[in-house]
Structure to design on (165 residues):
């Protein structure tokens, strides 16, 4: 399996939740076997924690077009919206979609606006996000908790000793 920075905050375990890319399962190829499907076990959707979006070069620290820059408070709001976006798909104890958030670099700046690296996250913002997850009853998993059922062509959350279904 492999994850990708797709800009989609959710991974649908059946790979069937994206209206613009209709699928019924996580098959790697289309039925005729000629094209890769948009959503499959080698392209697990996720959202990268980036405080600068757009045509931005972290190496040069410049924007080559339209860019958006976010501070810690704005990034926290984006994070909350993204992790909560799963709620409309997960009902009655059935998990159909999970948010996957990617972190790259942690820095000690007081705010991400001090950083020119778009993928930096401040330690205090990370603390705030983890507190939000804890206080709101989220279970934090790693990619290792995901499995792939080859008979159903679907992702699933593995059982483990911590009681996660």
């Amino acid at each position: 399996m492999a994850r990708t920075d797709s800009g989609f905050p959710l991974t649908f375990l059946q790979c069937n939740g994206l209206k613009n890319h209709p699928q019924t399962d996580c098959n790697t190829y289309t039925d005729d076997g000629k094209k890769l499907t948009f959503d499959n076990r080698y392209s697990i959707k996720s959202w990268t924690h980036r405080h600068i979006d757009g045509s931005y070069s972290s190496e040069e620290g410049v924007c080559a077009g339209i860019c958006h820059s976010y501070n810690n408070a704005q990034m926290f709001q984006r994070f909350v919206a993204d992790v909560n976006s799963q709620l409309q798909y997960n009902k009655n104890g059935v998990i159909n979609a999970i948010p996957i958030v990617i972190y790259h670099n942690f820095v000690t700046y007081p705010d991400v606006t001090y950083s020119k690296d778009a993928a930096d996250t401040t330690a205090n913002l990370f603390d705030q996000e983890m507190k939000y997850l804890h206080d709101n009853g989220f279970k934090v998993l790693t990619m290792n908790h995901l499995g792939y059922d080859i008979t159903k062509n679907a992702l699933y959350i593995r059982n483990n000793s911590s009681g996660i279904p």
